[in-house]
Design a protein that fits this description.
It contains 13 helices and three strands; from the N terminus they run ααααααααβββααααα. With 359 residues, the chain is mainly alpha-helical.
Length: 359
């Protein structure tokens, strides 16, 4: 029920109050601290784009459309020039390639959800008379659509990237790099885990050594995912071997006690470091099999190829850490020639001879 009186707050005032409420929910366990900070960052962006001194209730659907379009065109900080490389390593080969590139569809959707939540709260407590999100008309197509490097890699592209990751530990160290500064095993492991297991990048950088264990000869990764949920995912044998080699030979001694992925200085890697690692490995892929991809694009790659290979949908759901099967639709991308292959190997025609053949 809407309060009797309207409180005419500026956008900045409303944002401050809302962020304070959001952060308070982390105390009760209603939100994780990282999720609260994402909300806070998106709300701060809203203030920047809408104008701090404007009255929140004065914003219209057209104003919201303008904010959504302005956000979509903002350079993606994860691929902008000067993006950080893994600590101690050179800048990734893709650094600077994304300068001027807008936000990804997933970032746009997240931003829209964040400001929608703010306006929904504003309508309930009397900061606005009408929720302007109800009159926003900007479509996903107008915001830019899905960029190619956010989609799944084809089989050839994925195999090229995986092949380059496997070769990293055998490569000759670069000039001027000490043995303890080599990160080949670590970088190879990062790409292999992303491409074959499909974790969220936050799950990857939060991983600790103790999260990996062996049961009946199979190496498992206990992944701590969204909402405090955990899932135990068996690693492919090849990935388990690289993991073991990294733990024995590639992980810096004397670093953080728990973190799996460390810089050569012994510090836990950050989310932004992972993209630079992928870019550096991609530079070693043959040009005709190379396409830029993000960590989330590799999550799409895992889902797409497991489902295309007729792996049970519930098994794929459990690998990715989703609650229900319907969510898989967002991670399933089309592959070139996929329909032709499916019809050529139709399950109802396998084992049958040519039509009209003598019995």
């Amino acid at each position: 029920m809407r309060p009797a009186e309207l409180e005419r707050l500026t956008v900045a005032q409303a944002a401050d109050r809302y962020v304070e409420l959001v952060r308070a929910r982390t105390v009760t366990g209603g939100l994780s601290p990282s999720t609260a900070e994402v909300y806070a960052r998106d709300v701060a962006t809203l203030v920047e784009l809408a104008g701090a001194d404007r009255v929140l209730d004065d914003l219209t659907g057209e104003d919201v459309d303008a904010v959504l379009l302005a956000f979509a065109r903002k350079p993606d900080g994860r691929s902008a020039a000067g993006r950080s490389s893994p600590a101690g390593g050179p800048p990734g080969p893709g650094a600077g390639a994304g300068a001027g590139v807008g936000q990804s569809p997933s970032s746009q959707a997240r931003f829209r959800r964040s400001i929608s939540a703010l306006f929904k709260h504003a309508a309930l407590v009397g900061w606005v008379q009408v929720n302007p999100m109800l009159h926003a008309t900007v479509t996903a197509k107008e915001r830019g659509g899905l960029r190619p490097h956010r989609r799944a890699l084809t089989r050839e592209q994925a195999q090229g990237l995986i092949g380059a990751a496997r070769r990293l530990p055998q490569e000759v160290p670069g000039p001027g790099r000490r043995r303890d500064q080599q990160t080949g095993l670590r970088d190879g492991l990062i790409v292999l885990l992303l491409a074959t297991v499909g974790p969220r990048v936050s799950e990857l950088v939060r991983a600790n050594v103790e999260d990996f264990y062996t049961n009946n000869g199979v190496r498992y990764w206990r992944i701590f995912g969204k909402g405090g949920r955990t899932r135990d995912v068996p690693l492919p044998d090849d990935v388990a071997l690289v993991l073991q080699a990294y733990l024995e030979e590639g992980r810096p001694a004397g670093g953080e006690d728990k973190a799996l992925l460390l810089s050569w200085r012994g510090r836990r890697l950050a989310r932004g470091d992972v993209q630079a690692v992928i870019d550096r490995v991609q530079a070693r892929v043959d040009p005709d099999r190379r396409r830029s991809v993000t960590p989330h694009g590799l999550r799409h790659t895992t889902a797409t190829h497991l489902l295309a290979d007729a792996v049970d949908m519930d098994a794929v759901r459990r690998v990715l850490g989703h609650r229900d099967l319907s969510t898989l639709g967002r991670y399933r991308d089309e592959l070139p020639g996929e329909l032709e292959v499916a019809m050529r190997t139709h399950p109802l025609l396998r084992g049958e001879g040519p039509r009209g053949a003598a019995s």
